[in-house]
Amino acid sequence: MTARLGIIGGYLGSGKSTLVNRLLAGVLPGRTAVVVNDFGSVNIDADLIASASGDTVELTNGCICCQISDDALRTMTALAARGDLDHVLCEVSGVGDPAQLAAWRDFPGFSPGPVLVCADATAVRRLLRDQYVGDTVRRQLAAAEVVLVTKTDLALPAGTQEAVEACREAAPQARLLVQDPADPGAAATAAFAGPAPGTQNGGAPPDDPADRHATTHRSAALEDLGPLDVAAFARVLAGQAGRLVRAKGFLQDPVGRWHEIQLSGGRVDLRPHPPGRPAPEHPALVLIAAGPDAEDILDEVRTVLLHAATSRPG
Asked: If the chain, 314 residues long, is cut into consecutive pieces of 10 residues, what is the mean pLDDT of each piece?
């Protein structure tokens, strides 16, 4: 029995983890394994993905598509050899190149699923023009066999159409799907339906590629956050939205309730941690910035957020 290996890519905050959740919720039949590897020192994505009936494999050694280490090799080889999996989903880092992981689809024990790239309808046009991250986004879309335009519920119809046109220009080779705000699960089903795409790499695992995003993106983790006023903290984070390309993590309020917080596309989303999911081990927040001043930006934003976390209303 071979497992169908699907690659899910897309820039930071484009909806990759949400798509994986929908796939695990019943779109994919049978037993599914998920490989999650996050950009940053805290693997927040593994916590944000509902476990459902699938397995989650965390790799803590860096972006899987840009740093194929012994750990990644052992993990993928073990999954290919199991024989009891119907699907394996690899969620590529938000700054990674999905093309680098596509070679694994020819590895013995796997059969090829799609290379799917998510594109945020509210942000993809701006990101493609960005002087610091535009190359990363274009490279991701160029690797796609399927492009899924996400977050259409947050975009006006004209904005969605502009995003579709931008994706079509950047990825003319790809099948283009647009998420229906009324039925977002339908796009997830369509994305993984149909015959397997062709593959190109002759069965060998990918070589170690250069770390292309290292000079563009930097990350920092805040792991010393105690219980705090989560709404006030979210407002402070929103004030830094123009300086960050992504933030995500978990916060705990003074009465012990957990909350998920994310920043993408200039928007901050704060919501209660879903009941029934395991509680995070501790409050943590990953910040990602881009550009030549990314490290300075992260230092400054980290200082602002730590001050907000330790301030008490009064």
From this structure: 91 92 80 79 68 60 45 82 89 89 88 95 96 94 96 95 98 95 87 62 43 70 91 96 94 95 93 86 92 94 93 60
| Alpha-carbon 65 to chain mean position | 13
DSSP state of 61: S
Q: With 0.85 as the threshold, say if the pTM is over it.
A: no
Rg over alpha carbons for the chain, rounded to the nearest Å, is 19
Domains of the chain with bracketed CATH: 4-193 (3.40.50.300), 217-310 (3.30.1220.10)
Question: In this structure, which amino acid lies at residue 213?
Answer: H
40's CB contacts (< 8 A; 6+ apart) are 219, 220, 221, 286, 288
Cβ neighbours of 110 (radius 10 Å): 21
**Dist CA 216 CA 39 (whole Å):** 13
- For 226-253, b/e burial (b = at least 16 CB within 10 A) is eebbbeebbebbeebeebbbbbbbbbbb
Rounded alpha-carbon distances, angstroms, from residue 140 to 12, 37, 78, 126, 133: 11, 16, 27, 15, 11
